[in-house]
């Protein structure tokens, strides 16, 4: 069995890699401005300013697009909690602190841009959105006691989690842009998805370095995250309803989670090709493989159920139209 390293040791050993990847990120990312992505000439006053308050018919978004936009925005709105979690899991000094602050500033820009778009285009009920934001941000987001108990290293769990979460967020934003049926929204969400991809690369590279430094320990963190993954938006108002709509219409479903989020990272890290695990690590890898096999079966079952449901809904619409 390989010796487990304390979080302070892991962070110190990986600090040069963090600095290298921070510099790579700053050299790669491109500045952009939310106001350049908003159709400002579509805006008008609401009731309190002498205009007209929101009504459903004012929205050009479908029910699915509205649900996805609200879910994505409320997820971004909970940034104070994510910053607290990241600052607590990493260090607030040196390259770790510089990365957390830079990441926070970039993520904040996403919420600003999406909200500006929805306000100007009257895409959603803004009063209900604000009520949901207040509730969600007040409740916050934090790791549960069960999640913290899954692994000895809070640091490695955090690095593994955000790698998968950033990629999941990229997929969700990109597919939301496609269903909005608006080239302006699509362009905006493509821009946000590009940021999320760069964030994912930073964390993925850190996780790869952790696997080189402490293979068994990092693998256990990866396995714990994959086997117990939850999106950061869980707990927001209407999350289950909106999540079901998004899954049913291909914005973020179980197959996308498996094939576009989980497996690309595992392949990048060569989880099933590595030969540097101890016997304990080998057993943990077998456990992860069994979980993934079961997840493949769940994907097939979910799609069968979804196809039957969509077929029934289509048949119902045809009967109503005839």
Automatic annotation (TrEMBL):
- Ranges in coiled-coil conformation: 292-319
User: What is its EC class?
Assistant: oxidoreductase
Q: Which Gene3D superfamilies match?
A: Ribonucleotide Reductase, subunit A (1.10.620.20)
Question: At the top level of its lineage, which domain of life is listed?
Answer: Bacteria
**Zinc in keyword set:** no
Enzyme Commission number: 1.14.19.11, 1.14.19.2, 1.14.19.26
Q: Name its co-factor(s).
A: Fe(2+)
Quote the PANTHER family the UniProt record gives: ACYL- ACYL-CARRIER-PROTEIN DESATURASE-RELATED, STEAROYL-[ACYL-CARRIER-PROTEIN] 9-DESATURASE 7, CHLOROPLASTIC
- Family statement drawn from the similarity comment of this UniProt entry: Belongs to the fatty acid desaturase type 2 family.
Please report the name of this protein according to its UniProt entry: Acyl-[acyl-carrier-protein] desaturase
- Give the originating organism: Mycolicibacterium frederiksbergense
């Amino acid at each position: 069995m390989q010796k487990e390293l304390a979080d302070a040791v892991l962070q110190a050993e990986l600090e040069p890699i963090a600095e290298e990847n921070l510099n790579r990120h700053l050299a790669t990312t491109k500045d952009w401005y939310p106001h350049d992505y908003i159709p400002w000439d579509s805006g008008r006053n609401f009731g309190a300013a002498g205009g007209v308050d929101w009504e459903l018919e004012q929205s050009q978004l479908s029910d699915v697009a509205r649900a996805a936009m609200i879910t994505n925005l409320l997820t971004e709105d909970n940034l104070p909690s994510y910053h607290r979690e990241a600052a607590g899991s990493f260090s607030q000094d040196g390259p770790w602190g510089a990365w957390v602050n830079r990441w926070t500033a970039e993520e904040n820009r996403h919420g600003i841009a999406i909200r500006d778009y929805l306000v100007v285009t009257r895409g959603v009920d803004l009063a209900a959105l604000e009520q949901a934001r207040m509730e969600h941000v007040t409740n916050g987001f934090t790791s549960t006691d069960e999640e913290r108990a899954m692994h000895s290293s809070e640091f490695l769990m955090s690095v593994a989690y955000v790698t998968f979460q950033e990629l999941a967020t990229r997929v969700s934003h990109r597919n939301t842009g496609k269903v909005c049926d608006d080239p302006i929204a699509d362009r905006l969400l493509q821009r946000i998805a590009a940021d999320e991809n760069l964030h994912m690369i930073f964390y993925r590279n850190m996780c790869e370095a952790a696997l080189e430094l402490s293979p068994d320990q990092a693998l256990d963190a990866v396995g714990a995250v994959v086997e117990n993954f939850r999106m950061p938006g869980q707990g927001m108002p209407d999350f289950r309803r909106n999540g079901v709509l998004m899954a049913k219409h291909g914005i973020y479903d179980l197959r996308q989670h498996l094939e576009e989020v989980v497996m690309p990272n595992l392949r990048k890290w060569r989880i099933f090709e590595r030969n540097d695990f101890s016997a304990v690590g080998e057993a943990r890898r077998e456990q992860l493989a069994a979980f993934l096999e079961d997840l493949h079966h769940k994907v097939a079952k979910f799609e069968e159920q979804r196809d039957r449901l969509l077929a029934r809904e289509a048949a119902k619409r045809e009967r109503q139209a005839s």
